[in-house]
Amino acid sequence: MKTNDELKKESIEYLIKSTDMFSAVDYKRLEAQIEGHRYFLGKDLKNPITWDEAVYSWMGNIYLPISEVMENWTTLMSFPGRRRADVFFELCDHLYFLSLQKQSDVNIYDAVLDYDANYGRSIGRILARMFNGRRAA
Questions:
Q1: Distance of CA 113 to the CA centre of its chain
Q2: Residues 85-99: tens digit of each pLDDT
Q3: How far apart are CA 27 and CA 32, in angstroms?
Q4: Angle 108-119/84-102 helices, nearest 10 degrees?
């Protein structure tokens, strides 16, 4: 039977190999990201969560939705030349802090648009601000 550390290593290496976003330098950040998700998931469900359950939930509820929204042209235009993984982790943090600020769940699209509008550069930032203003109205 594999140890928890072996399961972690195997699943994180799989994420790195199977996505076009992450590389080996993201190993520790991925581990921390999934462990944090595991903690909050267990807290919400009032049950211990296995590493595999946490990875599966993180993929479906964090990685896939955020990576899909990141393909939004305001994000691509707001962060030219930046590594997608770096922007992804920043978006995860932004989503978390927005949910703390609002004391409720935040729509991923709204969080990404807000991040683009507040921290992006060039025309992407301007366009995100326009769309963000329209969504707030």
A1: 13
A2: 999 999 999 999 999
A3: 9
A4: 110
